[in-house]
Amino acid sequence: MLDSLAGDTVVWRHRLVAATPRPDQGWDLTFHGGRRTNCDILIGADGARSVVRSLLTDVGTSYVSTVVELNVEDVDRRHPDLAELVGPGNLWCVGVNQILSAQRLGDGGLRVGISLRAEGRPLDTYLDKRALLDMFAGWNPRLTALIEAADGTPTPRLIEAMPSGTRWTNRPGVTLIGDAAHLMPPVGEGANQAMLDAAELADHLAANPADPGTAIRTYEESMFTRIRPIAEMSARVQSMMLSPTASDDIVRFFSRTAEPARTD
């Protein structure tokens, strides 16, 4: 996709730190390091801690879980038992208020993930593999071996979400897509909705190039309607997966959704 664009269309390593409205119309943009430019239409695709979002709403985010990421390199050669355990795709092990998962990567390694309920521990708590193993005391050693085999230092992250009904009053020349617009728990919908946001906004702008304001308003109203039930579903699934009864709840969830439709 990048090869289909002009060489200067995508500019890497530019983190936006400020956006200021220009006297006529459009925006002056300031990036980390002092670099500046301007634009007529500003589309904030700048993620969970979006700078552009603050131009439209003062809505905050809430802490919903902690995720710790680890990596196991060259797993087929160094840890064939773990390679066999995970297989060619993903492995999910659901416990009480916690999940241990692993994903096969294209470079021959594994990405290991630990998901935990929101709690008040400082992030430093999760930097030590021994402390992580203590959190999974009593688990089958074949599973906790995923943690023991990890290379390097674990990477902990606080996972946040925006309120599911977030809206803002339309402002000419600026809008949001993806996590900047509707940050939700990471249960599989965020990237899908970000790509759909971009496609729908692009369609509206292309169809009405002389009136981008109307195109943005149309996109936003459609996006608000589409996102709310998805964000609510994501919050329910997140809560279910990190609950004390998660394993039973997940079995019931998938059994229910797999049932064939009935007509009477």
**N-C termini distance:** 48 Å
Cα-atom radius of gyration: 22 Å
Mean pLDDT: 93
* Low-confidence segments: none
Helix/sheet category: alpha+beta
Percent strand: 15-25%
Counted beta strands: 10
Please state the overall shape, judged from the principal axes of the Cα atoms.
globular
Number of helices: 8
As for the number of domains, it is: 2
Q: Looking at the chains present, what oligomeric state does this protein adopt?
A: single chain
Helix content: 25-40%
Order of helices and strands: EEEEEHHEEEHHEEHHHH
Read across the widest sheet, the strand sequence of neighbours is: 6-7-8-5-9
The description of the largest β-sheet is: 5 strands, antiparallel
What is the strand and helix layout of this fold?
Layout: E1 16-21, E2 27-31, E3 36-39, E4 42-44, E5 62-72, H1 75-78, H2 80-86, E6 90-94, E7 98-104, E8 110-117, H3 129-135, H4 141-148, E9 151-161, E10 174-176, H5 179-182, H6 190-207, H7 212-241, H8 246-258
Helix pairs in contact: 6-7
Question: If you had to describe this structure to a student in words, what would you say it looks like?
Answer:
The chain has 8 helices and 10 strands. By secondary structure, the chain is α+β, with helices and mostly antiparallel strands. The protein has 2 domains: 62-161, D-Amino Acid Oxidase, Chain A, domain 2, CATH 3.30.9.30; 164-264, no CATH class. A 5-stranded antiparallel β-sheet has the order 6-7-8-5-9, with helices on one face. Strands 1-2-3 form a 3-stranded antiparallel β-sheet, with no helix packed on it. Strands 4-10 form a two-stranded parallel sheet. Helix 6 (190-207) runs antiparallel to helix 7. The longest helix is centred in the C-terminal third of the chain and has 30 residues, at 212-241. The mean pLDDT is 93.
